Structures are given as C-alpha cells and as structure tokens.
Amino acid sequence: xxxxxxxxxIVDPQxxxxxxxxxxxxxxxxxxxxxxxxxxxxxxxxITGWTTIGARNRFESHCSIGxxxxxxxxxxxxxxxxxxxxxxxxxxxxxHRGTPGGGGLTTIGDDxxxxxxVHIAHDCHVGSKTIFANAGTLAGHVEVQxxxxxxxxxAIHQFTRVGQYAFLGGFTAANKDCxxxxxxxxxxxxxxxxxxxxxxxxxxxxxxxxxxxxxLWRYLWSPKxxxxxxxxxxxxxxxxxxxxxxxxxxxESSGRGVILS
Length: 261
Prior knowledge:
Helix content: 10-25%
Number of strands: 27
CATH class of the largest domain: Mainly Beta
Number of domains: 2
Structural class: alpha/beta
Shape: elongated
Strand order of the largest sheet: 1-4-7-10-13-16-19-22-25-27
CATH architecture of the largest domain: 3 Solenoid
CATH superfamily of the largest domain: Hexapeptide repeat proteins
CATH topology of the largest domain: UDP N-Acetylglucosamine Acyltransferase, domain 1
Distance between the termini: 61 Å
Radius of gyration: 23 Å
Number of helices: 4
C-alpha cells in the first residue's frame, strides 16, 4: 500500500515514512522522524524530534509526539523517543523525548492503548500491552512494566515503578513503587510537609533563612500548639526574618485557610 499524505499536511523532506503510512489533514511531521509501515497519523497531530515509530501505530487527532522534555535543565540536546508496534494513541496524547541526565531516551513498547489526554514525560519506559485510561500521567523517569493498567486521572511520581500486571485505580496518586499483580488505589490527602529545603538551597536562600523557616514549621506543625499560638510564638522568636514574615502575612490574608497537615 502506498503512502498517502493529505495536501494540507506538512512533512519535512528529511522525515522517513514507510509504505502504507497515512498522514491526515494539517498533521505535521518534522525532520529526523522515522515512521514504520501502515501507521495512521490523525489530523492536527505533530510528530517531532528524533523520534522512531514502529509499524501499525495509530495516532488520533491533536497528538503531540516527540516534543522536547519539560525539564529546565534541557538545552536542546539530541535526545530520543522510540515507539514500538501496534499502539493506539487517542486524542491529545503527549509523549516527550528523554533528557541527557536521564539517559536521553523515552521508550514505548508494543500493543498498548493510551486514551485521551495521557501524558508520558521524559525518560519514561513503558512496556507492552499496557492500558492508560484518560489523563493518566507519568512524571519523568517512570517505569511501567508489561500488562499494567493505569486508571483515569492517576498521577505517577517521578522515578517510580509500576510492576507487571499491576492495576492502578482511577485518581490514584502513586509516590512509591506499585507491586506487580496487585491493585493499588487511592489518592492521598493534601498535606504540607514543611519547607522545600533542597529547592530553597538551589535558589540561593541562606542557611539562616532556611533554618528560620524550619523553626516556623515546627511551631505550626506541633500538635501541642494552636495555629494562633504558633503564629504568636513565631512573631516573638523569629522577628526580623523576612521569609517568616512573608509566610505569616500569607496565612493572615488567606480567605479559605491553608493546608498544614
């Protein structure tokens, strides 16, 4: 079967399309892309970057495949996305290439279903015969093994693994590995765990400022003290610390209350 490209589609001359590829209206295929036989590229989809796609894959409308990683350290390096055979990517699926610090490669296996709005971030490795329900989301560096099912609106924390044949129910927030063959379900309540110490250090906050914020958090978190008493104690003992004053002013100006625990 001959390759068919709609007149409104844009295909870079450097892209490599095998026999039987169909490119629908307004789709864009950039240079460095290789697409295997009998793939279907839906309307308004874009395939970019150093992306290699196997045979018999189907991309519904508005897919974004092979875009640069959403990583502030990424500086345009040559990184890759590899997709196997026989996968289905529904509307608005997004898959990003790897980063130099994460191995430079994102991979997708064979015969998987990615429902609408699924997101696969940089340096993820997804096995074969997986199912991602609507808006299932992987952060960077996640491994999903063969036959796993990711429920709708689930979010998987970076560097987490999902074992083979694992099932994650809808709205699951997984921040640790999910056991093979097991049902892992549930969304943790939002909690505050104190200062973002590493982030503050990376942004240049002094040791004095970070220490003051830790002390403030201990006052606010203590089960022996009311929030009002904790604020009063912080004002008395941490006076003059600008970051502490910002936190306290924020609390006092809140109309809905703040998350502490």
